[in-house]
């Protein structure tokens, strides 16, 4: 079995609210190994490269809005001037580029077996009102899709956590150099992982 790496980003709202320590502690406490940590002022290019520039990703994001609007009887055309999922996803990506540059972001690379599943579990649902208590998003945010869209901004949901093993590798390589990642053994690691 292979260890996975995941990138965590405490987004500008998490940094501005002084939540860095509280959030990182949660990932450290479950036994994930922190192998890199840093602050960075993101550039547009980095944010554009970070979120996939694929039809599938745009569609997933746009459909999140459309599903939510269908439940609430709202019309996507009022905010987006379209109800095409891919076009909506592209608009949200533009908002993400602005949002990520509001203040520095704080990043951690964590490593462990089934690390991706664990970081997603601890982060909680993308939509804060649907994120369960006990998760980072459930405990520290309460944003809704319709409010975020109406204000032409992304959901302010505190954290980014890699969503698939290949995304973890790609994102870690985008934001961290080899020299910024460290190799060491956690106390009790061999018992924890075997
Ligand atoms: P994540 O992996 O849980 O962060 O979710 P995604 O990769 O699908 O989306 C990236 C980020 O875009 C989310 O964390 C939100 O901040 C934002 N976002 C996603 N979907 C929507 C949406 O429908 N409307 C708005 N306003 N923001 C969204």
Report on this structure.
With 194 residues, this protein is of the alpha+beta class. It has a single domain, classed as Alpha-Beta Plaits, CATH 3.30.70.141. It contains eleven helices and four strands; from the N terminus they run βααβααααβαααβαα. It has a four-stranded antiparallel sheet. α4 packs across α6. The chain is globular, with a radius of gyration of 17 Å. The structure holds guanosine-5'-diphosphate. The site of guanosine-5'-diphosphate (GDP) has 15 residues, from α4, α6 and α9. The site of guanosine-5'-diphosphate has 15 residues, from α4, α6 and α9.
Topology at a glance:
Blueprint lengths: L3 E7 L1 H5 L3 H10 L3 E8 L3 H7 L4 H18 L3 H5 L4 H15 L5 E8 L2 H9 L12 H5 L4 H6 L8 E3 L3 H11 L13 H5 L1
Helix pairs in contact: 4-6
């Amino acid at each position: 079995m292979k260890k996975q790496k995941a990138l965590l980003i405490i987004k500008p709202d998490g940094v501005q609210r002084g939540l860095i320590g509280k959030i990182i502690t949660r990932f450290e406490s479950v036994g994930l190994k922190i192998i890199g940590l840093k602050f960075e002022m993101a550039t547009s290019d980095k944010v554009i490269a970070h979120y996939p520039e694929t039809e599938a990703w745009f569609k997933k994001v746009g459909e999140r809005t459309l599903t939510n609007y269908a439940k609430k009887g709202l019309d996507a055309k009022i905010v987006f001037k379209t109800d095409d999922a891919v076009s909506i996803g592209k608009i949200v990506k533009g908002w993400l580029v602005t949002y990520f540059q509001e203040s520095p972001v704080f990043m951690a690379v964590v490593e462990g077996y089934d690390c991706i599943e664990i970081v997603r579990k601890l982060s909680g649902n993308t939509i804060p009102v649907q994120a369960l208590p006990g998760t980072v998003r459930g405990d520290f945010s309460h944003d809704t899709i319709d409010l975020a869209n109406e204000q032409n901004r992304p959901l302010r949901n505190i954290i980014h956590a890699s969503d698939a093993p290949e995304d973890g590798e790609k994102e870690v390589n985008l934001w961290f150099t080899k020299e910024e990642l460290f190799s060491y053994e956690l106390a009790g690691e061999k018992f924890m992982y075997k």
